[in-house]
Every structure is written in C-alpha cells, then in structure tokens.
C-alpha cells in the first residue's frame, strides 16, 4: 500500500491558477502544490454534468471520484442507483464514480475539490484522473 505524505511546504493562490478551463456555464481553476492537484469550481446556474460536460468526457455518467468542500450555492447529485444528495454551503462531500450532478437554484455552486476536478472537461477524459 502506498502512503502519500506532504514532504515540502508549498503555497499557491487561485488568483494565479496553473490552468483555467472555462467550458459552458463553468470555470475550473486548477493549482498544483507538490504532487497534489486542487481545483476551485464555479458552476453557473443551469449547469448539469449530463448536458454540459458529457460531450467532453464521452461517458454516460461522471466517472470521477470527488472529495470537496462547498463554499456557496447548492448542487444535487444522483448516483446510478438513484440515490440523491443535496450539497449546500459549508458541506464537505465525497462522491463515487457513476453519477450525474447539477446546480440547484439561481446562485452559482462554488467549491474546492481535492480529488477529481483536475481532470474535469478534458476531452475524452473518461474519468481518468490527471495531474495538472
């Protein structure tokens, strides 16, 4: 079993991300600190994975693992088994592969993700996680 450890100090600001992706109704700011990728997501009202991101990922459902913290807004998640969860401001969340997700209401969903988002909206990403 491999254990990941932080071995050196690193600080980066989302004011100057390493990469920015801006597909329809979304913005993903990506930073790498040492061997770790962290992403700030801003998903606009009306954004839905199955409508707005599926064409890039080329899969029927989102195949990414997500571990994050919601700063503001709301997002609903539906698993392939039909389970629903609503994520609100100040919620932490873990979402396994095999889901759809969409912004609820008129406020953007803003979150920081520690697993999953570095690979968002890569053409034919098919759920494969990537370093920035």
From TrEMBL:
InterPro entries registered for this protein in UniProt: RmlC_Cupin_sf
Q: Which domain of life is it from?
A: Bacteria
Name the UniProt record assigns to this protein: Cupin
Tell me which species this is from.
Arthrobacter oryzae
């Amino acid at each position: 079993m491999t254990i990941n450890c932080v071995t050196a100090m690193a600080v980066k600001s989302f004011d100057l991300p390493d990469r920015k992706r801006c597909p329809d109704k979304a913005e993903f700011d990506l930073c790498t600190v040492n061997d770790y990728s962290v992403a700030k997501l801003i998903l606009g009202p009306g954004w839905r994975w199955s409508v707005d991101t599926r064409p890039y990922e080329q899969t029927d459902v989102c195949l990414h693992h997500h571990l994050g913290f919601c700063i503001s807004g709301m997002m609903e998640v539906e698993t392939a088994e039909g389970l629903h969860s609503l994520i609100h401001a100040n919620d932490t969340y873990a979402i396994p592969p095999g889901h759809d997700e969409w912004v609820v209401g008129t406020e953007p969903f803003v979150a920081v993700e520690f697993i999953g988002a570095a690979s968002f909206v890569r053409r034919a990403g098919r759920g494969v996680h990537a370093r920035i």
